[in-house]
Input
Amino acid sequence: MEHGVKTLKKYKAVLFDLFTTLTSLKHLKDAPGRFTYEILGVPPEAWSNALFHKSRQRLIGAITDPIEIIKDVAWKIDPWIPEDVLKEAVDERRIRFRYCLENPPEGVVDSLRGIRKAGYKTALVSNADVIEIEAWKGSELDSCFDEIIFSCHEGFMKPDPEIFALAAERVGVDAEDCLYVGDGGNQELIASAEAGMTAVLTSQFLQAVSPQKVIEREKTVNHHIRNLNEILPLLKKLEK
Output
């Protein structure tokens, strides 16, 4: 290399999913309160299905009242769940998500800060409702990103192509210059790749929850990491 000539980085930004990518309630064994499905008295599988596949309105911000958010999901399973139980579910869900955001797993914050220190822009791109991110401001994770995009604030959600285009625009780079890191929920890895980004599966938290999903989602990407501290080495490898 000639003196004074710098090589241009292939990637300029790293985008991240939030839940089951940077943190996970299921990995915080000392988290206070009970799971929402326990309070509501519904099967966990039914709750997960309704929460992740039948509740777009809460995720795009069309429903913002906490009671109505839980009601919209819960009543798809059992329309006879009483209001006082819904309120209890909201109260405990707030407590649990606050704990989740205020207690990121060891090493996550250091990894995120290391990526920014290395000169990459960072953005968070998360499907979330207003209950889940109520405690985001002021959390340690909040300081780790140049841009933060929550679906409930934007009116669309992953895998909508608009949210990936918005993320690239917010960090000021082309989609092709972005690495997208996530656990693969909501088809985010496939959608980010279709948007022009390089998709990376992280199984740091997903492996313990659903090893089968790791196997399935690994087939949809070219890159798979098992810990966030592998991102910088991966970037170095990809830059060659």
